[in-house]
């Protein structure tokens, strides 16, 4: 059974991955006519997506540790 904490973390990972995919696609398909502001926004979005995935992965690790601690106490 997946906890609500883990489910939230998985959702965060999925959103972060989608954000990085969208930003990377915009950067990869940018032509010379794209404004620097648009390119900078895409680069920032790429980094934000990365950070969201990393933070959500840490939540999964914490949830795993919490579950392990609870199991150790009850046994």
In short:
The protein is mainly α. The protein has 2 helices and no strands.
Plain-language structure description:
- By secondary structure, this protein is mostly helical.
- The chain is built from 2 helices and no strands.
- The model has no long low-confidence stretch (mean pLDDT 86).
List keywords for this structure.
75 residues; mainly alpha; 2 helices; rod-shaped
Question: Considering DSSP H and I runs of 4 or more, what fraction of the residues is helical?
Answer: over 70%
The total of helices stands at: 2
Order of helices and strands: HH
Radius of gyration: 18 Å
Q: What share of the residues does DSSP label as strand, in percent?
A: under 5%
Our measurement of the CA-to-CA distance between the termini, rounded to an integer number of angstroms, reads 19 Å
Low-confidence stretches: none
Structural class: mainly alpha
Q: What does the overall shape look like?
A: rod-shaped
Average pLDDT for all residues: 86
Number of spatially distinct domains: 1
Instruction: Tell me the number of strands.
Output: 0
